[in-house]
Amino acid sequence: MEVINTIGRRKAAIARIYMSEGKGQIIVNNRDFKEYFPDKLHHYVVEQPLNLLEVRETYDIKVNLDGGGMTGQAEALRLAISRALIKINPEYKPALRAEGFVTRDPRVVERKKPGQPKARKRFQFSKR
Description:
Layout: E1 4-10, E2 13-21, E3 26-28, E4 31-32, H1 33-36, H2 40-52, E5 59-66, H3 70-88, H4 93-99
Parallel strand pairs: 3-5
Antiparallel strand pairs: 1-2, 2-5, 3-4
Helix pairs in contact: 2-3
């Protein structure tokens, strides 16, 4: 089987993955993903699409992760894995769509406005 490559994004995080048939290894930035993401919650998030379709031990995944924080990176990786699984077998799409793994989360940080300390915060108003 050829290598399937896809991209997933969340906030400032970008995950580029290369998926091929294998034994279920997930390598993130040349480290095992359980070493890269020390939190068990992030392990769960990354494995969600694979566990849903029961293909956890079927594919090897090599990941290049960049930008953002841990949660953003984990969710970007989940989206990339979901997209790769759909490329492999389009019949997976309804199941992944029902769980919300196919939708790119559009929420990003609002920009800071000039004349204000933050995006929405204002400097203290003084009447006199």
